[in-house]
Amino acid sequence: MSTTRSDSQSPSNWQISDSLPSHPEPYKIKMIEPIHLPDRKTREAALQEAGFNIFNIPSDHVFIDLLTDSGTGAMSEHQWASLMEGDESYAGSSSFFRFKNAVQDVMGFEYVLPTHQGRAAENVLHSVLVHDGDIVPGNSHFDTTKAHIEFRHAHAIDCTIDACFVPENDEPFKGNVDLAKLAKVVDEHGVEKIPFVLITVTNNSGGGQPVSLTNVKEVAAFCHERNLKLIIDAARFAENAWFIQQREPGQRERSVREIAKEVFSYADAATMSAKKDAIVNMGGMLCMRDEELFDQCSSFNILFEGYITYGGLSGRDMEALATGLYEGTEDDYLSARIGQVRRFGDSLTEAGIPIVRPPGGHAIYVDAKKFLPHLDQEQFPAQALVCELYLEGGIRGVEIGTVLADRDPDTGKNRPPKLELMRMTIPRRVYTENHLQYVRDVLVKLWERRDSIRGLKFTYEPPILRHFRARFEWE
Ligand code: F0G
């Protein structure tokens, strides 16, 4: 991808060129997993049975599964080989030390606690740092992060830049934190109410958009000035570093690993779902610099996850994770991966389908408000679109909209987000461009008959994280 920029250093003056030269995958396929498209009647029955919630659909009734990029990647031969070297000792497993060395090498943190996935790392960290009435500012907290904050009667406040909420805005770093918004929150509530500032890279809830190195540095400087901790949600840190390499002036000659390590150097701690950029099917971690914080978190890790040298993972999982951390931060791999997502997104834009621009690192987000303007947000247009995509082509996407946003814990009211999106998430090293061409063709069919798409209403609504278990019917 080439970027051009004016002489000004202002990100809003940078432009992303429209074409990305194709970068072939730096691997070939050794093993395949058959998939098939169930017939229309089977899909209709499966959707009814699922209460119009695609989390309830068995995967063998799904043809192309774009529900998530989390834990759905294809491991390499080296990762599979690493599994065989797992040391399953309860304490002091050699696999833990290999994992710890990889974390120190790639991410630069002195201390690490393994956890079974990302939200478990959040649980451990928040158990130490987040208390009743606290405020956690950040750039579009992921839903489990927000839920962990609200579970402790604290509040997550979104300080993402406004450009993030304008789908057609083509700015290169739409995931950035707005420093003026952040300063306002800190001034309003006072530093003693703020256990940390959180930067999520890439900004998943905001369209998979990256955060610039400059922005991370500015937020870190702000935090240090006010004596606030800075935490990074590192689920997709490698993809974020690739965007910095490609789009930020002066970064093109640096490796993704160099950039990623610099980003982490500004943070006090990081939580990571290793199911994303470390390309494992299960795993997470909590990384820190401070020994005292590590000590406090260790107790909760033992309580919730497992002893500090395995914390919810088997030795073999830690081996695959260590190998995956290196593979997931290779420049060539990232160029092929993000290029695939980019070309898929561009093909939808060419067909006139409204998506969040520019395409993010791991997913394409369809703008459901623009796709289905005849539906009100309370009729869950993105959820309706997810159901239609399944019915039309056996493809499973996911709603990132009003259902996911849950109700306001104080008022009990729905809180329709600014963006109402259907996310089509691309698993790592799994689907070919032919698969994505098929998805495009199915979406074009839906686009042509969009006026016929109906809204949904709840038949069951769970109190916490409702989008996983809610049930609906057509209005
Ligand atoms: N943070 C971010 C930015 C995430 O995207 C996720 C998970 C988590 C934390 C939690 O990690 O699932 O390992 O417990 N995102 C997945 C998704 C589920 O589909 O976007 P986890």
Describe this structure in words.
With 475 residues, this protein is of the alpha/beta class. The protein folds into 2 domains: 40-69 and 331-474, Alpha-Beta Complex (Aspartate Aminotransferase, domain 1); 77-327, 3-Layer(aba) Sandwich (Aspartate Aminotransferase, domain 2). The chain contains 16 helices and 16 strands. It has helices at 40-49, 77-83, 94-107, 118-129, 143-151, 179-189, 213-225, 237-247, 256-265, 291-304, 315-327, 331-350, 368-371, 381-393, 402-405, 433-448; strands at residues 3-5, 14-16, 64-65, 111-115, 135-138, 155-158, 197-200, 230-233, 269-273, 284-288, 363-367, 395-396, 398-400, 421-425, 456-460, 471-474. A 5-stranded mixed sheet has the order 4-10-9-8-7, sandwiched between helices. Strands 11-14-13 form a 3-stranded antiparallel sheet. A two-stranded antiparallel ribbon has the order 1-2. Helix 8 (237-247) crosses helix 9 (256-265) and helix 12 runs parallel beside helix 16 (433-448). The chain is globular and about 60 Å long. The chain starts with a strand and ends with a strand. The chain binds ligand F0G.
Quick gist of this model?
The chain is α/β, with parallel strands linked by helices and 475 residues long. The chain is built from 16 helices and 16 strands.
